[in-house]
Specification:
By secondary structure, the protein is α+β, with helices and mostly antiparallel strands. Helices cover 32% and strands 27% of the residues.
Length: 241
């Protein structure tokens, strides 16, 4: 098992009375996740809690391949269960959540996601985004109709195009993989953080001090910048290769 240190911090934000973000931190499994109840949908906190609960209960003693399979199977089952719950509430109801998952095993990582909760890797002071938003704004950037600068603060930045529990019959998780090195720091976060903190500031905060301090400082900075959304940061540091 790859040795990692991690810390998870979450906060409802400056204008919310409750928190629809959920996280999973299982360094014993090499598994971490963030789920963000989809804004504008009914009972987003139900969806994010279901995702966190099912991932939290993955058993020990699985291979990396078995872990990947369990994550996909459990999120697919949650997608179906959320459809059933929504159908009982009435036509047109959605109960949905984004999710981003990190698995670190045997010198490699795998990241799986649906929605706009993000994963970053900081290596040697260089920040790399290892997830790609499923969002309307990202589609506009990909089509060349909007640049990255214009994407920040776009009035439709909250419109996501994929989520667990959305209207699609099945949920597709994108995946990125790569090697890990001692000292690598990963960040999983909800969009309450990335809406108010740009990549340069994320790199500086993620790289400063201990992994614990980085997680604390990222959320604290989002609150200083008056994030109006729930905000969650999970920082994972690879201790040895």
């Amino acid at each position: 098992m790859q040795q990692c240190r991690s810390r998870a911090v979450t906060h409802p934000g400056t204008r919310r009375s409750h928190n629809e973000d959920m996280f999973v931190a299982r360094p014993d499994l090499g598994l971490w996740a963030v789920a963000d109840g989809a804004g504008g949908h009914d009972a987003g906190e139900v969806a994010s809690e279901m995702i966190a609960t099912t991932l939290q209960s993955i058993p020990n003693a699985l291979t990396a391949e078995e872990m990947l399979s369990q994550v996909r199977l459990r999120i697919s089952a949650t997608h179906a269960a959320l459809h059933e719950q929504a159908a009982r509430k009435g036509e047109g109801v959605l109960i949905a959540s984004t999710v981003v998952v990190l698995i670190v095993r045997h010198g490699h990582f795998a990241c799986l996601w649906a929605g706009d909760s993000r994963a970053y890797l900081l290596r040697g002071g260089v920040l790399q985004r290892i997830s790609r938003d499923h969002s309307l704004v990202q589609e506009l950037v990909d089509a060349g109709e909007l640049d990255e600068a214009g994407a920040e603060g776009h009035p439709r930045a909250n419109v996501i195009t994929r989520a667990v529990g959305d209207s699609a019959e099945t949920v597709e998780l994108d995946k990125s993989t790569g090697p890990v090195a001692a000292g690598d720091r990963f960040l999983l976060c909800s969009d309450g953080l990335t809406k108010v903190i740009g990549d340069a500031a994320i790199a500086a905060l993620l790289g400063a001090g201990t992994a614990d301090a980085a997680a604390d400082n990222l959320v604290a900075e989002a609150l200083v910048r008056r994030t109006t959304d729930n905000v969650t940061a999970v920082v994972v540091e690879v201790a040895g290769a």
